[in-house]
Amino acid sequence: MNSWSSFPIGEHLFLFSPMIALIATMLVIVGAPLVAGRGSRTIAGVAVMGIAAGLVLSIRVAMHVGRGTSGFSLQPAAGLLIVDSVSAAFQIILFLFLAAVTYLWWIGSVETESNAPEFFILLLGSAFGMALMVSSTNLLGIVVAIETASLPSYALVGFDKRDRVAAEASLKYMIFGAVSAAIMLYGASLLYGLVGSLSVVDLAHYSITKFADGPPLLLIVGLLCFMAGIAFKISAVPMHFWCPDAFEGAKIEVTTWLSVVSKAAGLILLARLVSIFSGIIDSPRAMSILGPLAWALGLMAAVTCTVGNFAAYKQVSVKRMLAYSSIAHAGYMMMAATAFLHPATNQYATPASALLIYIVIYLFMNLGAFGVTAMIVWHEGNDRIDSFTGLIRRAPWLAVPMVICLVSLVGLPPLAGFLGKWWILLVLGSTGTPLAWILITVLAINTLISLYFYMRLVVVMTLRDDGRPEVKCPIGGVALVNACAAMLLIMFFFAQPMRAAADRYANSFYSTSSAKITQGDAPASTSIQSLSVSDSDDTLFPIYVQRIPPTQEHR
Amino acid sequence: MDHILSWTVFVPAIGALLCLFAPKRKIRGVAVITTVVALLLSLTLFKTFLGNGHDPSSVFGQRYGTLHHVERAPWIEVPGKFTIEYFLGIDGLGFPLFVLTTFVSFLACLASWNFDHWKNNKGERAYYILFLLLETGMLGVFVSLDFFLFYIFWEVMLLPMYFLIGVWGGPRKEYAAIKFFLFTLAGSVLMLVALVAMYFYSATAIEQAGGLVASVYRHGVNITHGTFDLIELATNPAIQASFASKTTLFLGYPIAPIMFMFLFIGFAIKLPSVPVHTWLPDAHVEAPTPISMILAGVLLKMGGYGFLRVCYPIFPEGGKYWAFTLATVGVVSILYGALCAMAQSDFKKLVAYSSVSHMGYVLLGIAVMTDTGFQGAMFQMIAHGVSSPMCFFLVGVIYDRAHHREINRFGGLWLTMPRYGTLATIGFFASLGLPGMCGFIGELWVLIGTFQAGAKYTWAYPMAILAASGVILTAGYILWLIRRVYLGKEREEYADYSDADPRETLILIPMAALCIAMGVLPMQTVFNYTNGTLNQVLAHVTGGQ
């Protein structure tokens, strides 16, 4: 359709243009202080322009890829990066959230911040890493993407260098990140040694075909080690210890940032890996590897949400409580990922579609909850639960959206949080395996467990009052949190269009339909052969583009 | 297709919206008018159930699934695979409870007219908004026939109720409110698991039957995938065969007993029956009077309604499997509730425990699965739905004056407040089950039903005897209560109390009148509208034996 995207190189540039926009913005912010000074407003203005450009570009890419208007899509085969409709959808979410966080920063810190250029470079840098994460299909590429997302995040958490708590949180976060990156690299090297390829597609294929007696234990160990790095990113138990500390120590804008998209990127990456692995599902010995993988993931998800919910009980700091809440929600979303490992998943609700819906809903819930917390922090100077006492009288326009967001986080209708859980339940139910029914029960019971600590905050806000003065809050912030709360109501009643849109994006999620690896000893697609490690070095990390005839594209 | 049900359900929600914008002094008026409109709208439904004379077949049809005022439209669908419908309809199960809800809501709204809270300006607007949203949730439960929709309405009630108890309640309101919330949600999450399971197991059943099964209760409709339609789940032969089969397994166990239990626990918490009843005394005691009326009058009935609408028609095998357990739980509820009531010194707590005891009859009547038992259970629900709000309001009237509820500190109130005393006696006698009053018919029918069940279950006889002895306990604690509070010498500290004022009398008289009318004319007030459907459900459950 676009004349300039009909050339392959133009296509590349076009498909990666949102990421390029991020890099360009970072570069401009590096140079801007030389020309326009270090004023917060100037720098934020530049950042906003970059984000707006990135948003427009990501929407165009999404229209291009997701709806298959030009009948082509990037095939990763053994390649390094992939742009498909889900990664495009994630980029839209990413830019929207980036805008929201910038807005929050503008309300709270624009007057006081003296290091705005550094802040935005780090913020955009981690955003770039996340965008890479959802597009990677290569072991090494994934490691690089995760590190690109993580390194700026460490610095962001400890951004205020005079704050000892932040510095400690940052150090903890970094040590955890370093260790998990090491484990991940170790896993990647094991896998590379076993199958002789860094491509996840090859890995999935060879894990079946190379080993006549079923996959060796070392392969499972390698996979689990590699998963540890992703588990760190989505703060799944037992890699979750950094999360509460980092969330508590960081500035509230940074906490908001880390709580949603950072985890969302990790989850989509996880879903992509699992989904690629599910490509081997028709092979006769597939379950010998998919079975343990599904149970391992399922167990991790169940433990993650249960631990998160129980640990949130006793928290005094609201940021810390929301950190545990985000751990629990990561557990729910991981459950959806386990459903990939079953053939019947496309029938009722594809896991990818459920995951996308959950991420969007989760974004609004968390943005609302953190937005209100931010305004309390700015007013009271701390985020202790006592600071919320009597909020319904002191600031009804903060208390009501907060209640809505919290109840939505519990997952009660008629709020969107329920729908998020509902689609995950359906995805699990559609597989019909014992694991799925166990996870459904665990998820349902966790809803109950989580009720208590969310309601603890509701109780403090609505039922208690110790005569504190009214909260003066910026009107822009009030508008933001109320818009979030309103969205949660609206999204519930417009479940149908939301579902339809998510299906459109999820349907061309790579490898659920487009690149199923068929059984047999020879790799199915020639591209896999041509890109095995015996090839020359320059094809080790290719960005591989392949045209699909329009008929294969849905619609 | 008319929209009478939708209007009735959503009129309170519209009223809530109006309350949001109404000027401060008009809020109460708007709320009362809204409940009146809802009541009148629901009363028009009598036309459907009366208009056809005495021929039940024209109202109830030949089999389960004859509905009136049906509204259905797809809400969320993935074409060809998955449909959630906006599906409302009414039959003999929902109709009396639907009318009861609008009736009790109206009276409770009147009862909120002069809260003490209003004098110190505490959240009148929020109260009425939550109250009206609660009414929408309650009404929705009784008419929604799509299980997903049912579940939504069921959950919608939770939050308003939580705040109504938590903000406007008594001294231990926080504890009571969160306890109510946790218990009810515990039931709902089990229901949620069952909701998902029922959908996918029905989908499997349809698939195994060839992917296309003609609907029995809807002509010319073919079922090609799983369904949330409660009537379809109960009447579709393929689905029913699969649910009844012992080879349909859920985590290694036959599906019917497991799903029945999941649903049963959810509904039993609401009912409430004994091991899971502990939220009720706390919630009732701490809730403000009008909310206690709603809790006792309507919310408890949802448990019984759930048994009759969801558990038994869809998983009849589960009902047979658990019959003994359920009947035992019912009898224990009757006796334990009565004994607890007898031990209370708090007036309101006594009434609360009497609810546990009375709802035990509902459970027993349903569990034995005889026609008299089912009818008795239904009647008992309606009777209790009238008499117990009345009792709670009676407690509220005296609490407004005395500001305490210690039974032993009262005495001789009949002399001080003759009008109130007379109405109180009617209310408590109705609750006691005096012949000629509503409580009697329900209890008697349940007991007869249990004896009848002796034909198939020998354990039914001792159960019936134990349950009958519960009647004596009930008489014991109620008569003792009346003696301590209303009879005896006039006490000085209460001598200057004014008698029930016109508003209070206006609230009490309709309930008193119904208590007597239902006792004298049980057919014309309840049975005529319910028996048709109840018998169809029973015929379906027992396989027409």
Pick out its properties.
heterodimer; A: 555 residues; mainly alpha; 21 helices; globular; disordered N terminus; disordered C terminus; B: 545 residues; two-stranded antiparallel ribbon; two-stranded antiparallel sheet; 25 helices; 71% helix
What do you see in this structure?
The complex is a heterodimer of chains A (555) and B (545). Chain A is mainly alpha-helical and 555 residues long. Chain A has one domain. Helices cover 70% and strands 0% of the residues of chain A. Chain A has 21 helices and no strands. The longest helix of chain A has 32 residues, at 164-195. Chain A is globular, with a radius of gyration of 23 Å. Chain A starts with 7 loop residues before the first helix and ends in a 25-residue tail after the last helix. In chain B, helix 2 (27-43) runs antiparallel to helix 5 (94-111) and helix 15 runs parallel beside helix 25. Chain B is globular. Chain B has a domain at 322-545. The model of chain B has no long low-confidence stretch (mean pLDDT 88). In chain B, 62% of the residues are buried. Chain B has a two-stranded antiparallel sheet with strand order 1-2. Chain A binds chain B through residues 347-349, 407, 412-414, 418, 425-426, 428-430, 432, 434, 437-438, 440-441, 444-445, 447-448, 451-452, 455, 459, 462-463, 495-496, 499, 503, and chain B through 75-78, 81-82, 151-152, 155-156, 158-159, 162-163, 166-167, 173-174, 177-178, 181-182, 185-186, 189-190, 192-193, 196-197, 199-200, 204, 250-252.
